[in-house]
């Protein structure tokens, strides 16, 4: 496992610790030989992780749809920029390149991208590890929702550990390394 796709926000959030911890995540990745696969943005959480990687001689590969490249702040510091034609191609390319998936704080786009990988794991499209970087308990409400979905029978109970919340970068990568596929979804 060398290449990690990180889904996260182009916003910085209200608490400065989000940016600080995102930068530290990037630094950790570079220092431990992990390559960053991400949405190619130079601002917010995305930019902070990228800066942490690149400031410590790591590799940051950005995947950006051409239509967003014209509107958003695409990083000019990337190790490699891959331009694609659509958001669907972006997600496919990131999934293809990555050996594992992480979600860090972000908004609806981050959730959508990560949960496509989550659902793909459930139906057997991939068996790559997933984990959530839970900076400042950001994703605690999400875990409550997932637990509710499991309790109400909309997600198989075996998937409770599919995308665990990790409060530190060390725990995050230990979780990714120890991942065991949970098998495909069953229908009753």
In short:
It is built from 7 helices and 7 strands, in the order βαβαβαβαβαβαβα. The protein is α/β, with parallel strands linked by helices.
Features:
single chain, 188 residues, alpha/beta, Rossmann fold, seven-stranded parallel sheet, 7 helices, 16% strand
For the biggest sheet, the summary is: 7 strands, parallel
Give the number of DSSP strands. 7
Morphology call: globular
> How many domains make up the coordinates?
1
- How many helices does DSSP assign? 7
The CATH topology label is Rossmann fold
Category by helix and strand content: alpha/beta
Approximate helicity band? 40-55%
Q: Please give the CATH architecture.
A: 3-Layer(aba) Sandwich
CATH class type: Alpha Beta
pLDDT averaged over residues: 93
Give the DSSP E fraction (strand runs of 2 or more residues).
15-25%
How widely separated are the two ends? 34 Å
Output the helix-strand order: EHEHEHEHEHEHEH
Strand order of the largest sheet: 4-3-2-1-5-6-7
Unreliable parts: none
Nearest-angstrom radius of gyration?
16 Å
Characterization of this structure:
The protein is of the alpha/beta class. The chain has a single domain (3-177), classed as Rossmann fold (3-Layer(aba) Sandwich). It is 43% helix and 16% strand. It contains 7 helices and 7 strands, in the order βαβαβαβαβαβαβα. It has helices at 16-31, 44-54, 66-69, 87-97, 108-123, 140-151, 169-178; strands at 3-7, 35-38, 60-65, 80-84, 100-103, 130-133, 165-166. A 7-stranded parallel beta sheet has the order 4-3-2-1-5-6-7, sandwiched between helices. Helix 5 links the parallel strand 5 and strand 6. The longest helix is centred in the first third of the chain and has 16 residues, at 16-31. The model has no long low-confidence stretch (mean pLDDT 93). Keywords: Cytokinin biosynthesis, Hydrolase. Its EC number is 3.2.2.n1. One of its GO terms (cellular component) is cytosol. Pfam families: Lysine_decarbox. One of its GO terms (biological process) is cytokinin biosynthetic process.
